Each structure stands twice: as C-alpha cells, then as structure tokens.
C-alpha cells in the first residue's frame, strides 16, 4: 500500500489532519486500533476554542456542531459560596465558549472522511513504525488485529495515536526529552439524565474539593468531583456523589443542583506532559502523543487541532512548492503554543483544586488568586483570552 501521509490514530488529531490534507489534494491513510463503534461511543468532554470552531466550519464539517452545540458567552468561577461570572464574549471581542462533546466531533469527522472516500482501517493490531529517519518511512499493521501483516509506504508519518501509542517511542530516547507533572487528585465524572442546572459552566472551589457543572444536551448533564488520585469508583455510591456535589456547589443565594439518574461514572487521572521534540526524521507527533493537559483548562482537543493545522500547512508547502521551512520548524511552532496552554491548564488546576497538603497560608493565597481574577478586568481578560484560545502563530 502506498500513500503520501500515513496517519496512526483516528482521534481528533488524526481525523482533522486527514481531512485538512484531503482539502489540499494530499493523500492519506488512517489506521486505528479501536473499532469505529468504540471511538464514536467513548463519551468525553468537549469545550471548543473559537479557533477550533472556525476550523471545523472552514473544513465543512461544522454543520451539526452549529446546530447542536451550546454557545456560551461566559462561565462561572464559584468560591466562598458565591458565583462570579467571567464574561468571555465581552472580554474577547465577541467570542464564545462552545460546548460540543469530543465524540460528536469524531462522528462528524469520520462521516466526512468516509463520504469523501478516505481510507480508515479500524480495529488494527501490531502497529509498528519503520525507517522514520529515512525518506521512505513505513507503517506495518494487522487488519482486524490478527490478519496478515500489511505495510503502508509513505512520505511522512503522523503519530496521532495518543499517550500510549507506538509513535512517540519511535523517537530514540537519546533524542527525546519528556516533561511531566502528576497531580495528587483525579476527577470523578458522571453523566446524569436531568435538565441543566446552569446555562453556563460552573467551576467551583470548595473546602472539600473542586466540582464542575457542564451541559451535554437539554436532557444529559456532565458533572465532576475532585477525588484522591488513589480513590476507586467503587467507593462512590450515587448518594455519596450527590451529597458531595450539593455541598461543593452550594451558594449563599440558594443555588439548586437538579438531580437525575446517573448512568455513567468513572475516575480520570490528572497529569501534565510534554514531549520535545515532536518530530524525528519523517515522523511528526500531534495531539496526546506529544502532550497531555489536565482537563481543567479544556485544552486537549484544541491543542490537537492547533498541531495538525501547523502540520497540514507544512505538508501543503512541501507538496505544492517543495518547501520544508514549516516542517523543519514544526516542533518550535507547536511547542510555543503548547507551553502556554500547559501553563494555563496548570494555573486553572492549581487555582481551583484543593491540595489537602496546603498550609492555611497557601489556602489563603489560592482564594486571593480567585478573588483577583474575578475582580480585576485585566486579570479577567487574561483568563478569558487563554480560555477561549490564543491565536495561531507561525
């Protein structure tokens, strides 16, 4: 099998890249270890930056997003029993917070790729990368996990296969430098069959820990609780979850959280991670293969979208004009934005979560930070600009 760009992973990064290349007349083949049903059925959060929304519309894959997504003009920071609204729309010159779940983005992109005749091999196994430091890299895999070994010969490989995929280890350890922070807490997330308790997201800092209220649809809500990193979901009955949510979200003006049947729950660990470089020979990493952010800043999918825009532009320049300037600078361009997003995600995480090892002094500093970002227009503007997404820079 021969193609111009071999893409490993059918998550947001791989699918966005493949469709961007298609629109520029560049061939690609995607391989994915999970089935189509698995990638479309894995329910994950999705707060989209304005730039990601604009990209999907420009690509022609944003019709359902614009119809079914939730467009918010702000969000709330809640602490000391009081809510403080950050008006993102006003502070950023008319931009919106768009809530549209990641699995819905994936559904839209898979449908677009298949409708355009794109090649996606689902449920593959034994994926390996070869000759990535030559001009003729190759990907080998087994269709349907145990089929006969096949090979994709390509000009370039895009590793969009997540943190545990085979792409990043294909960069020699002597070349790779990895930065990581593991947080001492996790998120317990639940999906609830109930009407919205709030029309905008609520990020709550409470003595007992962080909580988040997010909308999925008029009938389904997504709620989160901070729990210990070593906690287990079996320790959390529905009654205990609701009790903690009510406690952490209560306000002096009597806010009422609407309950409903919990039909999904799980615990997600929290880490920050960056790989440098994001390229080696003809291999380029994008999305979670190269970086991880804690979900507090809502940057994961958006960083993946930013990566592949840079990569797609670099590949376009190579195939149309023989230029490799952008490809050569791929790591430099991407990491400049990634580190800013890592900083913001760390800032939001440390500002909103309770570290039970903090001294009373450190707790006082945390509350002062929240008071400052919600009372100073300059601080609120900085918060809003980072939340809605910094501009692309080449």
UniProtKB/TrEMBL annotation:
Record bears the keyword Cell wall biogenesis/degradation: no
Keyword Oxidoreductase in record: yes
Signal sequence region: none
InterPro entries attached to this UniProt entry: FAD-bd, FAD/NAD-bd_sf, HB_mOase, RIFMO-like
SUPFAM superfamilies linked: FAD-linked reductases, C-terminal domain, FAD/NAD(P)-binding domain
EC number: 1.14.13.2
GO molecular function: 4-hydroxybenzoate 3-monooxygenase activity; FAD binding
GO biological process per UniProt: benzoate catabolic process
Domain FAD-binding: residue ranges: 2-345
Matching Pfam families: FAD_binding_3 (PF01494)
Domain of life according to the entry: Bacteria
Keyword set, alphabetical order: FAD, Flavoprotein, Monooxygenase, Oxidoreductase
Main EC class the enzyme belongs to: oxidoreductase
Protein's recorded name: 4-hydroxybenzoate 3-monooxygenase
Organism: Paenibacillus validus
Species classification: Bacteria, Bacillati, Bacillota, Bacilli, Bacillales
Gene: pobA
């Amino acid at each position: 099998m021969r193609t111009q760009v071999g893409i490993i992973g059918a998550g947001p990064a791989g699918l966005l890249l493949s469709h961007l290349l298609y629109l520029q007349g560049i061939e690609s083949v995607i391989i994915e270890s999970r089935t189509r049903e698995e990638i479309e059925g894995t329910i994950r959060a999705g707060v989209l930056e304005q730039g990601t929304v604009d990209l999907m519309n420009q690509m022609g894959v944003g019709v359902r997003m614009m119809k079914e997504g939730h467009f918010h003009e702000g969000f709330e920071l809640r602490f000391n029993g009081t809510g403080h609204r950050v008006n993102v729309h006003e502070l950023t010159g008319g931009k919106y917070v768009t809530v549209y779940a990641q699995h819905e983005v994936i559904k839209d992109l898979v449908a677009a790729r298949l409708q355009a005749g794109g090649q996606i091999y689902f449920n593959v196994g034994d994926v390996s990368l070869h000759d990535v430091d030559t001009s003729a890299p190759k990907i080998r895999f087994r269709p349907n996990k145990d089929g006969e070994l096949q090979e994709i010969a390509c000009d370039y490989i895009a590793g969009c296969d997540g943190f545990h995929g085979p792409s990043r280890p294909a960069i020699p350890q002597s070349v790779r430098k990895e930065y990581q922070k593991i947080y001492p807490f996790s998120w317990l997330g639940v999906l609830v069959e109930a009407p919205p308790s709030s029309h905008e997201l609520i990020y709550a800092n409470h003595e007992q820990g962080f909580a988040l209220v997010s909308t999925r649809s008029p009938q389904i809500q997504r709620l989160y609780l901070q729990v210990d990193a070593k906690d287990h979901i079996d320790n959390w009955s529905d009654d205990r979850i609701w009790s903690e949510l009510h406690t952490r979200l209560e306000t002096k003006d009597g806010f009422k959280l609407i309950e409903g049947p919990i039909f999904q729950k799980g615990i997600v660990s929290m880490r920050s991670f960056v790989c440098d470089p994001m390229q080696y020979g003809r291999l380029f990493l994008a999305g979670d293969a190269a970086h991880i952010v804690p979900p507090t800043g809502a940057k994961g999918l958006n960083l993946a979208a930013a990566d592949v825009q840079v990569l797609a532009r670099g590949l376009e320049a190579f195939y149309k004009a023989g230029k490799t300037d952008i490809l050569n600078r791929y790591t430099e361009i991407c990491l400049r934005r990634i580190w800013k997003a890592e900083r913001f995600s760390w800032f939001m995480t440390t500002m909103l979560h309770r570290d039970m090892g903090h001294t009373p002094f450190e707790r006082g500093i945390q509350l002062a930070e929240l008071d400052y970002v919600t009372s100073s227009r300059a601080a609120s503007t900085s918060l809003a600009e980072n939340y809605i997404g910094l501009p692309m820079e080449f």
